[in-house]
Write a structure and sequence with these properties.
This protein is an alpha+beta fold and 198 residues long. It has 7 helices and 4 strands; from the N terminus they run βαβαααααββα. A 4-stranded mixed sheet has the order 2-1-3-4, with helices on both faces.
Length: 198
């Protein structure tokens, strides 16, 4: 029986990108179906006192997350999945800047009109709705990604590099086990590497 996996992401987060490449690898080695959903680091961090450089980064994520919500709203999950791969490839392994030009190119890559950028503010309500779903699952003190399996959700995993083949499946098996336990909240160690894109 196919396991449904729901994955909430902000397209500008490299750690969500790493986890997304892992979960797509899991689809190859386990009977799972992944549905991607938008969330927004901009909305998550509203009203928070952030270091100036991180605030600048977060402010640049606004248009990306709002357009992503608009794609979900207007075109649905399959087109959102295609767009995430397009924009994420440009931003993360491609190291393109977080600009509207990069966003426009990613939209064109998957056959979407770059004029969606001009409509970004009209998708704010949708972005807030999607964000509320994600935060209701795990609370407000986590980031992206958020993954739900079997009705239970967790933030993470934060991984680098993304495992391949059976190693991806084994990590997923463990993730399912800890997610299933209602009293499980957190595992953590300090990060000692940046995202490794391959």
């Amino acid at each position: 029986m196919t396991t449904q996996v729901d994955f909430w992401f902000d397209p500008t987060c490299p750690w969500a990108w790493m986890a997304s490449r892992w979960i797509l690898e899991v689809e190859k080695v386990r009977d799972v179906a992944v549905t991607f959903h938008p969330m927004s680091l901009y909305i998550l961090n509203e009203g928070r006192d952030l270091p100036p450089d991180y605030r600048e980064h977060i402010d640049k994520t606004r248009v990306f997350s709002f357009v992503t919500a608009g794609i979900q709203e207007r075109y649905g999950a399959e087109k959102l999945r295609e767009f995430y791969t397009a924009v994420g490839t440009r931003l993360h392994p491609g190291a393109e800047p977080r600009t509207v030009e990069t966003l426009a190119a990613a939209l064109s890559d998957c056959g979407l009109d770059p004029k969606l950028i001009d409509e970004a503010d009209s998708f704010e309500d949708a972005a807030r709705r999607f964000q509320k779903v994600a935060q209701d699952l795990v609370g407000n003190d986590v980031g992206t990604p958020i993954i739900r399996v079997g009705g239970m959700a967790l933030f993470g995993p934060v991984i680098s590099p993304a495992p391949k083949g059976e190693a991806a499946g084994e990590l997923f098996d463990g993730f399912v086990k800890v997610t299933a336990y209602d009293g499980f909240f957190e595992l953590k160690r300090s990060r000692d590497r940046d995202p490794i894109f391959d």
